[in-house]
Amino acid sequence: MAAVSTPRRAPLMRVNGISKTFGDVAACKDISFTLYPGEVIGIVGESGSGKSTLLNCLSARMKPDAGSIEYDTRRHGLIDILSLSEPERRMLMRTDWGIVHQNPRDGLRMNVSAGGNVGERPMAVGERHYGEIRANAEDWLSKVELDIARTDNKPTTFSGGMQQRLQIARNLVTKPRLVFMDEPTGGLDVSVQARLLDLLRGLVRELGIAAIVVTHDLAVVRLLADRLTVMWRGDVVEQGLTDQVLDDPHHPYTQLLVSSVLQV
Ligand SMILES: Nc1ncnc2c1ncn2[C@@H]1O[C@H](COP(=O)(O)OP(=O)(O)OP(=O)(O)O)[C@@H](O)[C@H]1O
Question: Which residues form the ABC transporter domain (predicted)?
Answer without folding.
Answer: 13-258
